[in-house]
Design brief:
The protein has two helices and six strands, in the order E-H-E-E-E-E-H-E. The protein is globular. Helix content is about 20%, strand content about 40%. Helix 1 packs antiparallel against helix 2. The protein has a six-stranded antiparallel beta sheet, with helices on one face. It has about 130 residues and is α+β, with helices and mostly antiparallel strands. The longest helix has 14 residues. This is S-adenosylmethionine decarboxylase proenzyme. Belongs to the prokaryotic AdoMetDC family. Type 1 subfamily.
């Protein structure tokens, strides 16, 4: 079997979800299952995941490592807020992963920044573009 080849091009979604019920943001097992379900819905390949709860009723930080890149979440139940980071390359569909998360959280407000990630064509980026 030939290993999959992934392009070094992708979409990076940064989502801020506000007005989320606190109980949806403080269950570590539920959040890990949610992000894994979202990754699968997006057609991504899950390699590993790790989630950490900071205590009963407190926030959670977690990451799902994907062959296509990653998904991460940081929650603040006391502020009814979650920051979700979805970066996927290849044929995966990060927008579908975000749709799964939004449906589960039912936020009152969602702000999404979309960043296209891709290598520069050598010779087209002026020197000094990066510090």
């Amino acid at each position: 079997m030939t290993p999959a080849v992934y392009r070094a091009e992708g979409t990076h979604l940064l989502a801020d979800l506000s007005g989320v019920a606190p109980e949806r943001l403080s269950d570590c097992i539920h959040l890990e299952a949610l992000l894994r379900t979202a990754a699968t819905a997006a057609g991504a390949t899950i390699l590993h995941s790790h989630f950490h709860a900071f205590g009963i009723g407190q926030g959670i930080t977690g990451v799902v490592l994907l062959a296509e890149s990653h998904m991460s979440i940081h929650t603040w139940p006391e502020q009814q807020f979650a920051a979700v980071d979805i970066f996927m390359c290849g044929d995966s569909r990060p927008e579908e992963a975000l749709a799964v998360v939004r449906t589960a959280f039912e936020p009152l407000h969602c702000s999404v920044q979309t960043v296209r990630r891709a290598p520069a064509l050598i010779g087209t980026v002026p020197a000094g573009d990066c510090p």
